[in-house]
Amino acid sequence: MKSGMSLFIALLVSCAGLHAALPGSPEAYTVYPARHLFNIKKDFLQPSDVAVGRDRQIYVLDGVNNCVKVFDSQGRFLFAFGSKGSRQGEFSNPLGIAADREGRICVADSQNHRVQIFTPAGEWLRTIDSIAPPGGRPADPTDIAIDESKQQMYVVDNDNHHVLVYSLPSYKQIASWASEGERRDQLQYPFFIAAGADSSVFVVDVINTRVQVYSPAGEVVGTIGGWGVDLGQFYRPKGVCVDPDNQIFVSDSYLGVIQVFNRYGNFKYVVGDEEGAVLKWETPVGIAADDRGRLYVVDMIANLVSVYELSGKKIQKP
Amino acid sequence: MLRTAYYLLMLLSIPVFAPCASLAQQAAVPRESDTAKKCAICHYRWVYTFFIEHKSTPIAELEESKDSVGEAKMCLSCHDGSVRDSRNTVCNISGHAPGIRPSDRVTIPPNFPLSDTGALLCSTCHTPHAELAPRDSINMTFRREPNINSSLCLRCHTKKTGGSAEGNHPVNVTIDQAPEAIVKAGGRFGTEKPNQIICETCHMAHGGVGDKRLVLLARDSSAPAILCEVCHTKKPKKPNEPDTKRFSHPVDIQPDRKVTIPETWSSGEKVVMSVQGDLICFTCHRAHYAADREFLLNEQAGDEGLCVRCHKNQSQTLKSTHDLRLSEHPQKNPPDAPGASSGPCGACHSVHKGNGPFMWARQLPSASTCSESYCRSCHAPGQCAEKAVPRSSAHPAAAAASVNTARLPLYNDACEKSAQGKVACMTCHDVHDPSPVTDVSRSGKNGRYLRLGDSGQTALCLSCHSEQGFVRGTPHDMNIAASGYKNALNQTPAQSSVCGACHVAHGSTIKEYMWAAPLSTAVPKEWLKSEKPSKNIMVSLCTGCHQKGGIAGKHVPRYGLHPGAFYSRVSEIANKRLQLDICLFTPSGDTSPMGGIVCSTCHNAHQWDGRKKDRGTGLAEGTIATSFLRPDLPRLFCSICHGTEALFKHLYFHNRPARTEKKEQFPFGDLQ
């Protein structure tokens, strides 16, 4: 009798829940309007990432062309550096790029298994070889994040499913975070990475379709997103950046959208146009946000970088 | 009581639960199942929101009927470096890339899916569901079928097998050594035999060069390794290397200006040149679908065949006596290709197996000059042109400095054209052009193969000896002076042309001046009254006609032999004194400062009026100023050696009748 009653109550509750999820009910969401400023096209061949450096110069990693192309803040081409190869200043299918406060440019030189650091003018400064873990695959650095307040540099080793932590300014590896898997403390093909103003580290965990949030000490302190195609979910999360307000922007290269989350992993907005329509890119990958509210989006297949100005006034939909 | 209450409650709850029944069934699909995600991570339309809930979201349009699982965008969503980086190979190419519709030459098996529009998908060749073991047999690229020795390639490219019998480059054959350049570039060899040629020896499914995805450059003649040449020549050569001439058709060079490269072949295929515009292997050859199967050529041999399409300037050979397809001679060239089967050119030229320069297919006999050896390989007893062996040629090999050779080619000892070279057979003859055709009644164009042949033989002579052209229209032009005259070859002036009346390149009476006009053995008797003759061939040339009974018997000078004519001492003094070239001749007819005074010392037999560089005006009677006298010689005539008083002697003694009877103007007016 007791068990029958329990079953009945359970069914009642579950039916109520299902009623709430019935299709057809319009979902309310908020669009983060972005005003398109300009596109940058410069014979790119599947560019992957973008960084904003000193004097707001725009550094585009033109990966299949194995070079970095540099533009002024208005998108005018300035110069390029790098070519295919494995010597100093040369690249082999690089994927991620980051700039530190001094304007130094760090490039994840993926198939050379290293990170290279350059002056803002593109002169080679240093190479940090990424060491493969024992029994692991050759290191595959795909992105870099620098947290000057903690004097740490983070490098994603995609093929080995972990994050390498280096102390600055010695560039000595001091830790590695995660292993391959689906658990909360694991990663499956981490790709791009960003560090927040509060020293949180955001790692795009592509196949686990989430963004893992780490403390500077390597503890998983949160998860952003999850599997799916609805708001706040990811199908192919790729790029991540943190704006000065500590909002986390995440691009989804298959859905073609950029979604915005707060520090605690709650979905807040989807980036749209000034009319409130959700903006769609062909394949948004690397993204960057600067201190004056600009959003930079690398569209890999379209071979361009789009630059937007984010508006403070959000648009409620529908 | 309790049981009654339970059933009542259940009964009351039916309307509430009814709408939920179907939802409960739907909920049986593992919404949060990890298995579902692992499928839907590629099978986009199987995402729960679409497949179960049938709805769109603000960020994703509902995908129901379309299946984008095998499309490039889906594959790139992982192969963009976030799982594997295939950007450089999969998505950075043309030709074998997703979205391309297979050509008619390709047969796609039914189990190789194409897109809705019939275009290639990644999943046409790849699938993660390939049930293939061992794993390494699919080379970690999830090919739909094993690709053992390029077997997967041939599933679609079915018409690229069969080797040259099918117009294709052979596969599954072996070579001695796998070229390092191919291996280094990623080309693969088969596993059944050592160094086995397979599709992937030359092609890469992803990557490679150009739309054919070749492992090495084939259209850049400056490349350090060129695909065809790494196998087909032992030592790839460049134009500036000393051994460029490999007795093969030259490649990696700009076409000669005389060559006309067509835009397309007769098949409609574009003619391929290097990016620099150079000739390359692919200009003539193609690895697949060749028109000529034996040699994998873009055109078959023939009257409008491969060679002729470019070498139009040599197409006059067709149907000529040099077109050995028409010859009944059984002789074959060294590769044993009879003339009839090797095309119009193959009897003489072996494009890659020549016995010498010009890709010469025939055995070269020894000969006095390089050029002659080529001609003698046919025009000699026992050879295929034994009925057309020319008489020996007396034309000097060394071109005189005074001769303008700009229009005709000279050849050095290596048979290369050279401005410093020598006169050779090919200087006057163009073996590819039978002009002028001399006997149109015979089968084939039976010509003399003379350069500038259309302009007549005289034009050929005058292209070098232009000053001698002034003989036309003078009394030395046999066409107007003695039309019944015949030269040593029994040719009338009309047959021999102007020059040929006195000079012939082949069959001259004597070698000096290739003389074909009458040659005297004695000087006129009148001359003997004043002087004894001395043997000088130059006198014999003139007196062959200028003597009684000769065709110029009416023009025999009263005095022909200059006193002391052959005193070289005198001539030496004369030369030193006046620095004049007064054409002194040795007994063998060569000009020399140590030569003697002969007719040609004062006369230029090719120019009627020495003051006018022009042809003659007819058969006018000569004067002291004309009469083929050399320029200025009338004025300086005797004074060169005899001092100025000699002019007066001449005036009052030598030429008085002409001056007094015909009232001629005294040619030395300034001396009167």
Task: Chart the SSEs and their pairings.
The complex is a heterodimer of chains A (318) and B (672).
Chain A: H1 2-20, E1 29-40, E2 49-52, E3 58-62, E4 67-71, E5 77-81, E6 83-84, E7 90-91, E8 96-99, E9 105-109, E10 114-118, E11 124-129, E12 141-147, E13 152-157, E14 162-167, E15 172-177, E16 190-195, E17 201-205, E18 210-214, E19 220-224, E20 237-242, E21 248-252, E22 257-261, E23 267-272, E24 284-289, E25 294-299, E26 304-310, E27 315-317
Parallel strand pairs in A: 1-23, 6-7
Antiparallel strand pairs in A: 1-26, 1-27, 2-3, 3-4, 4-5, 8-9, 9-10, 10-11, 12-13, 13-14, 14-15, 16-17, 17-18, 18-19, 20-21, 21-22, 22-23, 24-25, 25-26
Chain B: H1 2-27, H2 34-40, H3 48-51, H4 72-79, H5 122-125, H6 151-156, H7 180-185, H8 199-202, H9 227-232, H10 281-284, H11 306-310, H12 343-346, H13 370-376, H14 425-428, E1 437-439, E2 446-447, H15 457-464, H16 478-481, H17 493-500, H18 525-528, H19 537-543, H20 568-578, H21 599-602, H22 633-636, H23 639-642, H24 645-654, H25 656-661
Walk me through what this model shows.
- Chain A has 318 residues and is mainly β.
- Chain A has one helix at residues 2-20, and strands at 29-40, 49-52, 58-62, 67-71, 77-81, 83-84, 90-91, 96-99, 105-109, 114-118, 124-129, 141-147, 152-157, 162-167, 172-177, 190-195, 201-205, 210-214, 220-224, 237-242, 248-252, 257-261, 267-272, 284-289, 294-299, 304-310, 315-317.
- In chain A, the strands form 6 sheets. In chain A, strands 1, 20, 21, 22, 23, 24, 25, 26 and 27 form a 9-stranded mixed beta sheet that branches.
- Chain A is globular, with a radius of gyration of 21 Å.
- The model of chain A is unreliable at 1-25 (pLDDT under 50).
- Chain B is mainly α.
- Chain B is built from 25 helices and 2 strands.
- In chain B, a hairpin with a 6-residue loop joins strand 1 (437-439) and strand 2.
- Classes of the chains: A mainly beta (318), B mainly alpha (672).
- At the A-B interface, helix 1 of A face helix 1, helix 3 and helix 4 of B.
